[in-house]
Task: inverse folding
């Protein structure tokens, strides 16, 4: 019972992080309307989150470690850059859908790690999660080119790394604050260099409220919740739960941005929510896996 409460609380923290991530789309939309590009928005939010995390988790930089800095550069920063590249090739909707191939990747990785066939329930849920994300974010049911699909798969692979690597980092003895602060800081520095040599550094006063919200809530508080939850949540369940993000994004787009939604998008969001609920029930019925 105690183990389930710890693990169940961890899953709930991951779910809460996904809900906060789902609000990113609105902040990005308002930031974009102020004149920033997608890459500039990602960079600005990372800078804000770095300052916020350094302020509230000061002990996160007492023990600088190259593993954590590389994790930020190779995984966190790469994910942001690949996301922007994928948008330019696949569009926002299809990019958002392709990210959620990640839960399937995690299921296959975990099965190979355990030396056992994939769990049928987890395999089915991961396929349903992708289907839900696909129709929710891509109501035209568009398909992409082979190069666009490859970019999307690499993006999903990078995202799946953020689900798998935290367990390895905790096993190595790193604490949450070190992981969060150092990876975010190195990612922000990386994006600063990339933006400087590509689109140029800029300050946009009109976008500050939205960038600040995105940096503090979506890339600050949400990341703290996620890594705290990953202490007791296995990567498969985390991957399935984080698909709540596009469902939340859709709801907010409808209520705040007054965007009209296609009926099929409601179907997709319903599938995503159903997968999340089943995952929570499944987590309650199963012992903690490591």
Result:
């Amino acid at each position: 019972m105690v183990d389930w409460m710890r693990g169940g609380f961890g899953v709930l923290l991951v779910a809460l992080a996904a809900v906060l991530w789902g609000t990113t789309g609105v902040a990005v939309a308002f930031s974009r309307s102020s004149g920033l590009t997608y890459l500039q928005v990602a960079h600005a939010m990372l800078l804000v989150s770095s300052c916020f995390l350094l302020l509230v988790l000061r002990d996160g930089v007492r023990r600088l470690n190259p593993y954590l800095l590389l994790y930020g550069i190779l995984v966190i920063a790469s994910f942001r850059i690949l996301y922007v590249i994928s948008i330019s090739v696949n569009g926002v909707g299809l990019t958002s859908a392709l990210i959620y191939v990640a839960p399937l990747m995690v299921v296959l990785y975990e099965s190979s790690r355990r030396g056992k066939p994939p769990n049928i329930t987890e395999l089915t849920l991961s396929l349903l999660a992708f289907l839900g994300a696909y129709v929710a974010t891509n109501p035209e049911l568009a398909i992409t080119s082979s190069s666009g699909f490859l970019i999307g798969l690499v993006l999903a692979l990078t995202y799946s790394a953020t689900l798998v690597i935290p367990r390895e980092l905790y096993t190595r003895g790193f604490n949450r604050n070190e992981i969060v602060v150092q990876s975010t800081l190195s990612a922000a520095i990386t994006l600063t260099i990339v933006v400087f040599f590509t689109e140029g550094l800029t300050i946009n006063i009109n976008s500050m409220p939205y960038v600040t919200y995105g940096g503090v809530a979506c890339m600050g508080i949400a990341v703290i919740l996620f890594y705290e939850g990953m202490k007791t949540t296995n990567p498969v369940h985390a991957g399935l739960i984080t698909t709540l993000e596009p469902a939340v994004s859709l709801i907010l787009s409808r209520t705040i941005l007054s965007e009209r939604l296609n009926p099929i998008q409601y179907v997709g969001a319903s599938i995503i929510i159903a997968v999340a609920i089943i995952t929570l029930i499944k987590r309650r019925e199963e012992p903690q896996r490591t």
